[in-house]
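User: I'm putting together notes for a lab meeting next week and I want to include a structural view of one of the chains we've been expressing. I don't have a solved structure, so I'd like a prediction I can at least talk through. The sequence is below, exactly as it appears in our construct file.
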Amino acid sequence: MAEFDKDLLSIQEARTLAVQARDAQRKFLTASQADVDRICAAMAQAAADAAVTLGKMASEETGYGVPEHKTLKNLLSSQLLWDAIKDIPTVGVIRSDPQKHTYDIAWPMGVVAALTPSTNPTSTTMFKTLIAVKAKNAIIIAPHPFAKNCCAETIRIMAEAGERAGMPKGLIACMTNVSLQGTQELMKHKYVALILATGGSDMVRAAHSVGKPAYGVGPGNVPVYVDRSADIQRAAKYIVASKAFDHSVICATEQAVVADRPIAARLEELMKAEGAYFVDDKIKQILGANLFVGHLPNPKAVGRSPQQLAQMYGFSVPDWARILVVRLNGVGREEPLSGEKLTTVLGWYEADGWEAGCDRSIELINYGGRGHSLVIHAQDENVIMRFGLEKPVFRIVVNTLGTLGTTGYTTGVMPSMTLGSGGVGGAITGDNITVHHLYNVKKLAYEIRTAPDAAFAPGSTDDPAQRRLFTGGSYSAPASTPSNSSMDAQVEEIVRRVLLELKK
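Assistant: Thanks for the context. Below is the predicted structure for the 504-residue chain, given as structure tokens.
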């Protein structure tokens, strides 16, 4: 049997899927809001039903994290997400202003190329698929090579459910022949309108370099500040649980504690009771030498338990240890463990007062997580607000777990597995990416004030008589404005005409 080049197979698959997605998305343009919602509801339910199976599959294939925790993320990205977006209008007229006589009309992006990471593969695939289809887009998943099978299975399950509900075949798909060249071909393909990238810095830079609209979100380096006013016992419980959650593979996981000095000893004691093992200098040196390749997290160490790290690098930790805590003094390259580690190792700093804690937190953010996230435990509202106002991040979660608070599980922010880092972090938005980022809005606007006479009259404005012409113009409400129902009918007719043009 002839052997084919892996890269060529990947490139061809990218081209084939892009064409199929374009054709399916054209058919999908005629879908009503009820059609879209029925399809998305079916896919969300199918993904939720498979949450346990897909969580196990993701953990087994990648070697990262905890299956039970991946199950929770799968439920966040299916059930909880759908509950949050199901009532958002995405078809036809989505808003109107009777006073200004304007209408907002949603229009999909088209075909979305979605890059997904190995750390949260199935949950990110579910999330991106649901928000893309809810906005009437097609989507092609380009998975990390380490997670291609679990991502493909996720899409298979969701596609079967969606197609039974009336979704055009080919509207959602996943690459199975994965290579860098194939992923690049997909991003560059003429039918791809938008890139949605979640992963490491290199992936995000690649997405932004293609020359197409892109939502790219990169690494975090999340500090958690514990103020003297905090509920110390709850803070200790939450920090350890959040850091241990899925072995710390979520980019919004706490990476370093900044403890207010008066409560630092008590916080340390309570964290130990929750499973935090404070390591000695010898283990600190071993971790510092092995957890990074260059300045990036070592893939071999990502998503590992303390016991797995100990076995890999030749040291001992107690069986009860859920996380390892390393005492640090500085921030930067001379202190590598001050960066994002994506494993069960947490930095520890002490600061005298919230002002010093604020400064240390900013140092950590600037070193590796500008624009991403921060956690604060405090009861003093003044301290909380100062952190909110002064930190260069776009998610500041209060008295909760960083992993679940930033992603919308325990807070009121939009559920999301793609967390924007804003302009300061090299991204186009600081939002939790969701459905409204995946469609454009057309403005239909009626005249509400007459143009001044000068708009119709030639001549120079040097003449005072001519200059007076520019002062004209008054509010002029239309004799009648169409109702929402008539507007919907007009929009449907416009869509029909567009489709006829596309078929020519």
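A couple of points you could mention at the meeting. The mean pLDDT is 91. The chain has two domains: 6-218+434-439, 222-416.

User: Perfect, that's what I needed.
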